[in-house]
Amino acid sequence: MEASFPRIGIAGAGAIGCTLAARLACSGRAVSLLARGATLEALRRDGVRLTDRQGSHCARVTASDRGAELGAQDLLFLCTKSHDLPALLPSIEPLLGADTLVVPVINGVPWWYFLGERGRFAGQHVEAVDPGGRLAARLAPPQLIGCVAFITVESPAPGVAVTSNPLRMVFGEPDNRPSERLERLRALIEAAGIEARASERIRDALWTKLIANLTSNPLSVISGATLEEVYSSPDLHELVCDLLHEGLLLAAAYGARVELDPPGFLARGAAMGAVRTSMLQDHARGRPLELAAIGDAVLELAARLDIALPRSREIIALARFCSRRGRPR
Ligand SMILES: NC(=O)C1=CN([C@@H]2O[C@H](COP(=O)(O)OP(=O)(O)OC[C@H]3O[C@@H](n4cnc5c(N)ncnc54)[C@H](OP(=O)(O)O)[C@@H]3O)[C@@H](O)[C@H]2O)C=CC1
Ligand SMILES: CC(C)(CO)C(=O)C(=O)O
Predict the structure, then answer these.
(1) CA 277 – ligand 2 centroid, Å
(2) Which residue among 108, 201, 268, 280 is the one 20 to 30 A from 169 at the CA level?
(3) 214 Cβ contact partners less than 8 Å away, ≥ 6 residues apart
(4) Cβ–ligand 1 contact at 301 (below 6 Å)
(5) Which atom of ligand 2 approaches the CA of 216 most closely?
(6) CA atoms within 13 Å, Cβ hemisphere of 165
(7) Looking at the annotation, which residues are catalytic?
(8) 129 lines ligand 1 (CB under 6 A)
């Protein structure tokens, strides 16, 4: 019997892209990676390397910086930072066939948030993450499956990913319907050793993750704190609780059911340990921060409903200031 999704592509071979690529390749799937520069060289030379709770894994992959060399895929994971997507669009064009299923493994408010569901803003794009709506015009349901990654991972060297926490992913159709392809995707990821769940309310998972990012990512840049420190330091407690309540308020206003008790949330966050958020990793490397998706887009959604998020606005502005000022010396 032919395997489900015979051609699997991954665009963006950083921490998340390498984690997915290594797990899929080690489960026997052929994976094609769209990568560039030093990462492309490392992947061609050494394959993709992952150290996780199951041990160290290394696998050969097909890698190229030219989409045409990889060709149309059945399944394409997008694993870049959110702000890199508009520029990525032309590069992934050759990977997109008429039936390619696209799965963005990307934090923050997705460009497709208002696509595929009914409601007051149905069909609109999110300007902060999709200026002019180019992404919404090219990558829309039914070509998309929503995804939320509950993962913490670093890439200490090109082509290498290291994680010490469990790997969990949630997938869902943007229109919330169950589907056969959703179940096939879930099964593929589960078979690769990543805990995978199919959801009929993907936006609930999106908000849960967004609240984790809103409470930790910008603050980690401002303070240099690890997740353990963000969620357990008495000095940060009041601020984190304020951010949490703002996130919960906005999620509820958008009709999300986020089942999250604040003490349990803080305890789970602290238990992630001394790991750096992806935003703090970017800041340490002097790279742009994902503040549009995790910050501005949240404020854009709040403004649509006339909701003020004063604490979130402050920490987003502070993180932007730190980013413009430059990396810590
Ligand atoms: N790291 C984590 O713990 C988690 C991250 N996430 C989210 O996952 C997403 C990916 O994050 P992460 O893997 O950490 O990010 P990384 O910065 O580690 O990886 C992104 C990769 O995309 C590559 N890339 C960007 N543009 C292009 C392009 N045009 N062509 C080819 N490659 C390109 C980058 O290449 P180059 O280096 O050359 O720029 C880089 O290798 C983000 O939205 C993040 O917030 C979600 C959960 C946890
Ligand atoms: C680890 C976590 C959950 C922190 O918010 C994350 O998603 C990130 O680092 O971007």
Answers:
(1) 5
(2) 280
(3) 243, 246, 247, 294, 295, 298, 312
(4) no
(5) 5
(6) 21
(7) 209
(8) no
Residue from 50, 81, 160 to probe ligand 1 pocket by mutation (most atoms less than 8 Å from CB): 81
Distance CA 266, CA 326 (A): 29
Distance, CA of 243 to CA of 237 (rounded, Å): 10
Nearest ligand, measured from the Cα of 221:
2
DSSP structure class, residue 93 = G
Structure tokens at 199: 């959801």
| DSSP H or E segment with residue 51 | strand 48-52
CATH architecture of residue range(s) 205-323: Orthogonal Bundle (1.10)
Q: Dump pLDDT digits (tens) for 98-152.
A: 999 999 999 999 999 999 988 899 999 999 999 999 999 999 999 999 999 999 9
Task: Name the amino acid, one letter, at 72.
Answer: A
**Is the beta carbon of 215 within 6 A of some atom in ligand 2?**
no
Q: Which amino acid is at 230?
A: V
Q: With a 6 A CB cut-off, is 98 part of the ligand 1 pocket?
A: no
Are domains 8-200 and 205-323 of this chain identical in fold? no
On whether the CB atoms of residues 212 and 247 are closer than 8 A, the answer is: no
The ipTM estimated for the assembled molecules is: 0.98
The Cβ of residue 144 has, within 10 Å, a number of other Cβ atoms equal to 20
The architecture in CATH of the region 8-200 reads 3-Layer(aba) Sandwich (3.40)
- Locate the domains of the chain by residue range: 8-200, 205-323
Has residue 1 got a pLDDT over 80?
no
> Which ligand 1 atom is nearest residue 279's CA?
45
Is the Cβ atom of 216 under 6 angstroms away from ligand 2?
yes
Q: Give bridge partners of residue 93 from the DSSP assignment.
A: none
For 289, list phi and psi in degrees, rounded to 5: -95, 150
Closest atom, ligand 2, to C-alpha of 277: 9
